[in-house]
Design goal:
There is one protein chain. The protein is α/β, with parallel strands linked by helices and 187 residues long. It is 34% helix and 22% strand. It has a domain of 122 residues: 3-Layer(aba) Sandwich (Rossmann fold), CATH 3.40.50.880. The strands form three sheets. The chain has a seven-stranded mixed sheet with strand order 5-2-1-6-7-11-10. Strands 3-4 form a two-stranded antiparallel ribbon. It has a two-stranded parallel sheet with strand order 8-9. It is globular.
Amino acid sequence: MSKIGIFFAEGFEEIEALTVVDICRRCEIEVEMVSAYGEKQVLGSHGILVGMDKGFGEADFSSYDMIVLPGGGKGTQGLEACAPLMEKVDEFYHAGKYIAAICAAPSIFGHRGYLKGRRACSYPTFEGHLEGATVTAGPVEVDGKVITSRGMGTSIDFALAIAEVFCGKEAARSMAEKVVYAGPFKA
């Protein structure tokens, strides 16, 4: 079974994070919600307190097939300021493992040089941080093992793209139908 670590810092965008957790768990992908700073609960950007599965020190990165970074301006800043997390993201990228980010969080990939020569998208006001990328207005971009998405409104597309990586096109298409998703996702 595939396993994803999704990382939370205070101010994360709730829908972006929890849509990935929900869709992936429905697809029987194991997902661990991990606090970047070790808290048992992390407060989202709209005042929703979410319980974590693990604190950063408890995360077994060797068991993850993907690292996911949700957006939210403050949450993204918190993730990027977490040096141990950034070291792990670097390790995943350089090892050719999957990394994914949505909304403001793709800016982290731009700052770290991961987007050079890739198609990528982010929340519109963060597009200038996608250094070296061919910036698109698509809901989600999968370029190699780097997945980016634009924001809350593209959260289901983002989650389905992640599900497609681990479960295949048919399973992602089936999940889109099961959740009555009528958006632009095309598996």
